[in-house]
Design brief:
17-stranded parallel sheet; Rossmann fold; plant defense; alpha/beta; 41 helices; NB-ARC domain-containing protein; repeat; 1215 residues
Length: 1215
């Protein structure tokens, strides 16, 4: 939680800093006092920002620090708002007023300036107070949130800058060495490596943050089961200061005795005391004998000076018996001098970017374990003998005399038989619900991996989503098949901190275990002392193994595993399970082998809930239509782990079930975190906390912002990104625009599964993160909501709200369920409100003159918003940056006062009755985004008020779909999105010349293109090198006006052409393969009389086309089977969505090489149309067919018959 607080504060402080610095640089005419105040505030905020950047978990655990961080955030909000107020006063025509004393100014202007300057003085005083508060409570100190105290100085620090620089240089060298020698940074490997020499070896261990972490790494190796038999004498001695030689020897001998005691029932401490109860001479003689004849391992903790080291070495001379000394020191100079000048350094463990533990060793003494004698890799090698020995001990047999030295498989056959029985029992006791499609995909991935000789596939999804259960079902199904693809199975969970040798031991143990998943860790003592890494590598190469690696958490850990265990020549398949998309992509051999497991859809979630309730209480009554239950299950986010936990609780509440469900809905996350009944979810909640903590700071405000949208609400991607920009969460930087950063943030949240693709929809690209719609996972949303309430940032009005003075925040949500109580609304303090979002009915009292700093007003699809309401909105909210009245059909006029919204960046009036934009809109120099007009596509179902039939009519040729724009639109040079502009109504050629000036356009929609203006249109868009999306509506009777001209489509990814006859314009077809590869079109929408066979062939060759929508008006045939010289060509290879519509009679055919990746076929049936499809069985990846507005029963029956004959049994859905 604290990390989210800091993430929010960082973002707000950064925004305030940017505004203040910009004001200082650009508002040179500010009064001198205001300038000085801004400079002071900027300096203080820079210090606060530095503190936030280094704030760690220890600091944030202090509630005083958290309170101070919140105060910084609120102060930063107010500074940013004040600076924007000053900028808002800066009307260019009145700039000279700032040069005059206040007495010379008109009263109104003077009062506004005085207000701004007074506010800055007040903010300066608040900043001084916050800084003083830090000094009073010692919040910023080297010791974190604790009172400042002088830390123990390290040798590097004592040495000054030169020592610190040397230490940092060594750290870089150690990390480079670790990358070069993957898997070698392990003390156990040093101590057990093969070496012909027996000279005494010394290794030094040094940590960049003192002894933090070093002792645990040494202790792990010291207690390793491979070390025990290798060293007959072991001792761990903490060096006393000053050094006492006799005490040192007594400590060594005491531990030598303790570690060599073999009497099973002996009390070791007592036995050691008896041994030590001898004369000093006898003890010294015994010590001398021990170090001469026995191989020993001695750990020396806290060696501080080289003099101490020299003295110690005089007691531990080299006797050529293979002994080792480990020196633990906090000083890198001592660590290096103990080894000598010719040393190497290697990173053992990285705890953070600045904290690592490193090992120093003699140069050339550490060899890569891969450099072993070739005989070790033969079947008769020592490692094979080790495997055979283990099999024999476990009751198996091994005959090394057979050809090739291969082992008898009877032991593994016995293991596999036992595992198969366990697998059958597991599948019966824990059946999967709602995972049929994903199970099919998993089996298909495995088959493809075997066929293509790929070794690694990956499965990812957030914690609790059931990815491990899905893979375990796949794992068990493979075991239980008669004709098995694999003959060995192993499931291993990755433990932290990661150690490759321990990982391989676990892998070997599960190979040899008869249980479905071995959990016993007591095997370490029984395992062979031979290298487990090599043994695993040999098994994976020699046999056809199915290995599941569960809970992989970093790409670095995978790189270690891959370098040692994954081989191109192996027939084994490895399935990696992880919670992060980037790790899954990094591990898999091909993007086709990456499976994202998402939450269960609503029906499947209820089925699982019902099954679990009845498993625990068969008489418990359930109603799938009950509102409380539906809401509760939605809040589970489709996570089986959460659904099962809640079902078990409710199963015990037969009488009070609905009351309990209602109570859970009201305090969902609080109950999960505090009710002992949900202890099974503790791990998930801890993971959730760490998941958000590890998110990059700039994403945390975006995550909080998602809670603005109601549960299960479908959110337009563009709506979300534009709001982030208006709020200042996505900002311009040196290399990227705010728009690009916003899109990147959206992609990041998608990769993190915080937002996800809505159910029953198909992505339009193999790597599509720019989907039109998204949803917030219900469970994730509830987690965010519980945190936003603590932070008092977002407040909502829903149901029947009571009157209270505590309802305040920066963002207001008015839900559809709210009873619209004016008394409650007027009691709210709106002085700090930044955004307001209305769902459902609009009331005129929703706008208040106290909303002085409101920057985002989102009324998308709100009902009963009238022209008078819009006029009042524009008048009372001069600081708006984003205004959306999208879908407000009653609005027909955009007032001219909109030209006074000088901060406005986004204006969305799409799907309203507005037909023209006011002339003074050209004054809005910051405007970047204008959407207008009455068009719609299947991608944008944001107009629920309009039926499909009406939308179809709106898009027919000849209908005015755009709006009239004023002359001078070319002055809005910041515009990157504009549409739809009615060219004919706006001045024809003249307006096209204006559009030509808008060189930053990325998305453009125009209507009214005809023969008279087509050349000017082509000329206008030819200069738009950034254009990515182009939509064109042709005038009636000008349907063939684009014939013979070539559209410049170099960077266009989305193209929509409405009103064509029977020929595509130039620019789509390319004459060479090289030119074809440069075409970036991924989405194409065509509305035309007839699509010719030649044009079908042209479209089929587009290399990146993923979505194709065709509406044909005249009867005919769409034959997507493209042939050349009698041979069918592979066409439409990347197409995943195909949408067909017609207003007459149409036949659609497919070939065996056509659209082999098509997943969704949409059919839009118009009145009087007749459609017939053939060869649907040839669409190998088809998942569903969607029929919209269909009343033709014959078509439904024909489609259903074909889908039943399809190997993948696609679904038929009616809309």
């Amino acid at each position: 939680m604290a990390d989210l607080v800091v993430g929010l504060a960082k973002s707000v402080v950064e925004g305030a800093l940017t505004k203040a610095q910009s004001a200082i640089e650009e508002e040179a005419k500010l009064r001198q006092s205001a300038q000085r105040d801004l400079v002071f505030i900027t300096g203080e905020f820079q210090m606060m920002q530095s503190f936030l950047n280094v704030a760690d978990a220890e600091r944030l655990g202090n509630p005083v620090v958290r309170t101070w961080v919140r105060q910084i955030r609120e102060l930063a909000y107010d500074v940013e708002d004040c600076v924007e107020f000053v900028v808002h006063l800066d009307k260019r025509s009145l700039w000279w007023r700032r040069l005059l004393p206040p007495s010379f100014l008109p009263r109104a202007a003077a009062s506004q300036l005085d207000e701004a300057v007074g506010e800055l003085e007040h903010l300066k005083a608040r900043v001084e107070d916050v800084s003083a508060r830090n000094a009073r409570y010692s919040l910023i100190s080297d010791s974190g949130s604790k009172p400042a105290k002088k830390p123990k100085a390290s040798a590097a620090a004592a040495a000054g800058g030169g020592g610190a620089a040397a230490a940092f240089s060594l750290l870089i060298e150690a990390r480079d060495a670790s990358k070069r020698q993957q898997g070698i940074g392990d003390l156990t490997q040093f101590l057990t490596k093969k070496d012909d020499g027996l000279e005494l070896q010394v290794i030094s261990v040094w940590g960049t943050a003192g002894d933090l972490g070093a002792a645990s790494l040494i202790r792990k190796a010291y207690n390793d089961p491979e070390i025990h038999p290798a060293f007959k004498r072991r001792a761990w001695v903490k060096i006393m200061h000053p050094f006492d030689p006799l005490q040192f020897i007594r400590s060594l001998m005491a531990q030598f005795h303790a570690n060599s005691c073999k009497q099973p029932d002996a009390i070791i401490g007592v036995e050691v005391l008896r041994k030590m109860d001898s004369s000093q001479d006898q003890l010294l003689k015994e010590f001398e004998e021990q170090v001469k004849t026995m191989k020993y391992l001695v750990v020396l903790e806290d060696v501080c000076t080289i003099a101490e080291w020299d003295t110690i070495r005089s007691f531990l001379p080299d006797r050529n018996n293979g002994s080792w000394i480990i020196v633990s020191t906090q000083q890198f100079e001592i660590a290096s001098l103990c080894i000598g000048h010719a040393y190497q350094v290697l990173e053992l463990k990285q705890f953070s970017s600045k904290h690592s533990v490193c090992a120093f060793f003699k140069e050339g003494s550490q060899e890569d374990d891969d450099q072993v004698d070739e005989t070790d890799m033969a079947c008769t090698s020592n490692n094979e003998i080790s495997v055979s020995h283990e099999l024999s001990k476990a009751g198996g047999s091994c005959d090394l005399s057979k050809a090739g030295g291969s082992c008898d498989l009877s032991f593994y056959t016995k293991i596999l038989s036992s595992k198969s029985k366990a697998a059958e029992g597991w599948m019966k006791s824990l059946p999967l619900v709602g995972r049929e499609l994903q199970m099919n995909k998993l089996h298909a991935c495995a088959a493809k991996a075997r066929f293509e000789a790929w070794n690694v596939m990956s499965v990812w999804g957030i914690a609790g989503v059931g990815k491990s259960a899905l893979v375990k079902n796949f794992y068990c199904q493979n075991m239980c098949q008669k004709d098995q693809l694999f003959n060995k199975y192993s499931w291993v969970e990755v433990t932290q901190p990661f150690n490759l040798r321990d990982f391989c031991r676990s892998l070997l143990w599960d190979f040899r275990s008869e249980s479905l998943q071995a959990k016993d860790t007591a095997y370490h003592g029984a395992m062979s002392s031979k290298n487990p890494i090599h043994e695993c590598c040999k098994l994976l190469k020699k046999y056809q193994c199915l290995v599941v690696i569960d809970d992989l958490r970093s790409t670095e850990d995978w790189d270690l595993i891959k370098s040692e265990l994954v081989s191109r020549h192996s027939k084994s398949v490895i399935v990696v399970i992880t919670s992060e998309a980037k790790i899954a992509t990094h591990c898999a051999d091909n993007e086709e082998l990456v499976l994202n497991v998402k939450g269960l859809e609503a029906d499947a979630a209820f089925d699982l809930f019902e099954m679990e309730v009845h498993r625990n209480n068969k008489t418990c009554p359930l109603n799938s239509k009950d509102k409380e239950l539906k809401e509760l299950i939605l809040k589970c986010g489709g996570l089986p782990k959460v659904i099962v936990a809640i079902a078990r609780l409710l199963a015990a509440k037969t009488v009070t079930l609905m009351e309990t469900a209602s109570s859970l809905n009201l305090r969902f996350m609080h109950e999960l975190e505090n009710n002992p009944e949900f202890d099974s979810l503790r791990g998930l909640l801890v993971w959730m906390q760490s998941y958000f903590r590890d998110c990059q700071d700039f994403l945390k405000p975006c995550i909080f912002y998602l809670s603005i949208f109601p549960l299960d609400h479908r959110i337009r991607r563009r709506r979300l990104v534009r709001r982030w920009i208006a709020e200042g969460y996505a900002r311009d930087c040196d290399k990227k625009s705010a728009e690009d950063n916003g899109e990147d943030y959206f992609s990041s949240l998608l990769d993190l599964s915080i937002i996800q693709q809505p159910p029953q929809s198909v992505t339009t690209n193999l790597n599509d993160t720019r989907m039109a719609l998204c949803q917030v996972n219900g469970f994730v949303r509830e987690y965010i909501v519980s945190r936003r309430m603590e932070e008092n940032l977002v407040f909502e009005l829903g149901g029947s709200c009571c009157l209270t003075t505590q309802r305040t925040g920066r963002h207001l949500i008015i839900l559809e369920s709210w009873d619209r109580d004016m008394i409650v609304f007027n009691s709210i303090d709106f002085s700090r409100l930044r955004s307001m979002t209305v769902f459902g009915e609009w009331k005129s009292f929703f706008i208040s003159d106290t909303m002085k700093i409101l920057r985002v007003l989102d009324l998308e699809n709100a009902k009963d918003v009238l022209d008078d309401d819009l006029h009042r909105i524009v008048k009372l909210l001069p600081r708006l940056k984003s205004l959306s009245i999208r879908g407000c059909h009653e609005i027909s006029h955009l007032p001219s006062s909109v030209g006074d919204l000088r901060q406005l960046q986004s204006l969305d009036v799409r799907h309203t009755s507005i037909v023209s934009l006011p002339s003074n809109i050209t004054n809005l120099e910051k405007l970047q985004y204008i959407r207008a007009g009455n068009t719609t596509t299947s991608e944008e179902p944001s107009t629920p008020c309009l039926p499909v039939s009406m939308l179809s009519k709106l898009c027919r040729p000849g209908h005015q779909v755009g709006v009239e724009v004023p002359g001078g639109i070319g002055k809005l040079t910041a515009l990157h999105t504009l549409g739809v502009v009615n060219i004919s109504a706006s001045g024809g050629k003249a307006i096209l010349k204006e559009l030509k000036k808008l060189t930053q356009l990325r998305k453009l929609g125009v209507s009214g293109i005809n023969r008279k203006n087509r050349d000017e249109f082509r000329s206008a868009i030819s200069s738009h090198s950034h254009l990515e999306s182009l939509s064109v509506w042709l005038d009636k009777d000008s349907e063939n006006c684009l014939d013979g001209i070539s559209l410049p489509l170099k960077n266009v990814q989305s193209l929509k052409l409405y009103g064509l006859v029977d020929k595509l314009p130039g620019g789509i077809k390319q004459d060479s393969q090289d030119a074809l590869k440069e075409v970036k079109l991924t989405k194409l929408e065509l509305e035309m009389d007839k699509l010719s066979k030649d044009d079908i062939a042209v479209l089929g060759a587009l290399p990146k086309l993923c979505t194709l929508r065709v509406k044909q008006f005249k009867e005919g045939t769409l034959d997507f089977c493209v042939k050349q010289e009698g041979r069918e060509l592979r066409t439409y290879q990347k197409v995943r969505i195909l949408e067909i519509a017609c207003s007459s009679s149409l036949k659609v055919n497919f070939g065996s090489e056509t659209m082999q990746n098509l997943e969704q076929l949409k059919v839009d049936c118009c009145n009087g149309s007749s459609l017939k499809f053939s060869d649907l069985n040839k669409l190998a990846e088809l998942k569903e067919v969607v029929l919209k507005g269909c009343s033709d029963n014959k078509l439904k029956e024909d489609l259903q018959t074909q889908l039943l004959q399809h190997t993948k049994k696609p679904l038929l859905k009616l809309e």
